[in-house]
Amino acid sequence: MELSRPFTCTECSQTFTRNENLERHKRSRHGSDSRRPFKCYTCRARFTRKDVCKRHSERCRGAFGRVLTVPGAEGEPEQTESVIDETAMSSNGQDADDSPEANASVDTTVAMNDETYHDSSPETGGGTVSRDLLSSEFMINHSESFIAAYFECFHPSFPLLHRQSVRRDMPKLSKQILVAIGILYSRPRHSSEEDADLVLRQSQTLWQDGQEELWRLVETDWREIRRTWVMQAWLLHIIYGAFTGNATHFDKAKKMLRWVVDAARDLGLLRQSVFTSTTRFHDGEEQTLHDHWMSYVESESMKLCMYTILFLDSHIFSPCNIRPLTTPIELDWELPLPGSLWEADTSLSWAQRLGDEPRTLYLTRSGDASGIPCPTTKSLNLAIQSLMTDTPSPQLLAALKASTMAAIFILTSLESLVREFTRCYYQMPPALADPNAFHILTQSQNRQVSAALRYAAEIITAQLAQANSSNWHILKFADRIALSVKLALCKPDDLLIGGIVENSVVAGLTTATHLTLGLQVGARRSLQNLLRYNSGDDGMLVFLDDLMDVLSSVTSLDKQDPLREVPWATVATYRILLAIWRLLRWATGEMRRKAGSRTTVRSRFEASTIVFNSILEVISSPEELESQTRRLSRPARETTALGMTSDDSEARFMEMVLQFWKDRPVWSMGSFMTTVLEEIISAGGMAYELRGAE
């Protein structure tokens, strides 16, 4: 048998009768770069045929003309590609020349390219040419500062990229999206609004060009998505398009997310065993410490990408009430390893941080990946099931403590689980024995989800007490999403119950704001709730301390820097603020309803009074709070004082929410939601009638 099939694949054990069959197998199954010798110097794609590579390179030069079109270079394509690779793409490489002469050469080339690009555009006027030229020069010459802004502001909250390896040899598409996101975080520093709008348009242009080139890349060979840098660039483009507030961008991001989910399924990337079977290191090969480190980086990078797909599927679609594309059951990857390993600067530092944790022992042992000693960390689904028990695995708790990203992914999956329970429950008729419109899970199910939340929250709370500026935002987001799940257990999403599906994150938040002012949940759930008084909101007293902590952190920044907040953290915080807003409206409505009744000592300790005073204490200034305390200390005037302040409380709260969005101009949804809140205030937000107060 072996004599009849003499050609053996070096990557796997498969044999072939003919050499050309073996070569075709290597190209299709293993994607070996050595078997595709022709390389596009724009996007780093490789091809087996020179003519296909040439056509692809011409499309790249057409798409990125301002950088790639060099006057007089049409007859020297190889020289042009070499210049591009050395200047525009490899400026961060280890062999890059940082001399003034080299920098001057790069700047001159970029200026010539920009000038050629704009002169060839018939739709651009003279003044716009100069402004766009300066903007392009500024962006290219300051790309390092924009990339630094990305790693300073965005990366600590969501470390998708491996900082030490990605900056060593960065493909152009990766560099482009990092610059685009870095521009967003650098934009608030511009003194004039005109300059800020100018760089924002430049950022959007970079994103648009990048996502078009990514589509061309996968249309040429859809299996290119298996490359780690392609997957990372793809996901970053989804993040940018989904949270900029533009409906067109959101549609494109949604299309990219749907495509990458299907591609990951078809290629088997959702299963760790399939991905690791094509690793570049094999048994019998001598591996250095650096090889072990790079093998870890390659596997961990794809792992984080797969978890990010599940994460974005939830945090992009749930604000719009769109059904998710994936479930935690599909994702068969081990939980992320400790974050300290991911942030190691060198292979030696990485090896020193391995320590004695059982999950890291196999990283330096070839072919020992199957012996992971903690079964509950081998997949997201197993981890969630273990947390829902009374005795979760100690190794699992240690893994969550070592990796905040792992805790975030678990909390995101719990939130999706509660939403699915809610969606199914509200399709059933209400039980007459339990007509409460807000009861979702059974007592047993509620206890299990609450147990998982308790274990995760204890770890996050303990780490928050010792957090610094580098990890405060990611820990605070984990804390916010845990609170969101708690709220969802008793207060379902208005869009979910109302059956409303929106076409963007901003549209979903806008609709949720208007529904908060109208209390549509009870009306949608059951006619019986319209015919009787519903006092279900007093159950929120259980979460009052947690809600006031969120409200206090929003009004007093402390460690918080709103300009460094990732967009999904802003969305999660705002949805909690909507829950507080709804609670405030219920409390003021209750107080108005009982305003004519006789004042008693008991009324001072009713749920509505406690809620109202707690919220007012946070949003009021010290002078107003002292004056309010003196009035409330007089029982005879208690009802009048409360009636006076309740009229102004919601207006003050709306101003606080408006300031919340004004403090977050980095992502464009901040300006969109500022406009929405200003329109509500100008229209008279108090005009909305609270149904429960009737």
UniProtKB/TrEMBL annotation:
Lineage top rank: taxon: Eukaryota
Major localisation: nucleus
Entry keywords, A to Z: Metal-binding, Nucleus, Repeat, Zinc, Zinc-finger
Gene3D superfamilies: Classic Zinc Finger
Record Pfam families: Fungal_trans (PF04082)
GO cellular component, as recorded: chromatin; nucleus
Domain C2H2-type span(s) in chain numbering: 7-35
Entry-linked SUPFAM superfamilies: beta-beta-alpha zinc fingers (SSF57667)
SMART domains (alphabetical): ZnF_C2H2 (SM00355)
Compartments where found: Nucleus
Molecular function GO labels: DNA-binding transcription factor activity, RNA polymerase II-specific; RNA polymerase II cis-regulatory region sequence-specific DNA binding; zinc ion binding
One BP annotation, GO: DNA-templated transcription
Protein name: Zinc finger protein
Species of provenance: Colletotrichum fructicola (strain Nara gc5) (Anthracnose fungus)
Native organism taxonomy: Eukaryota, Fungi, Dikarya, Ascomycota, Pezizomycotina
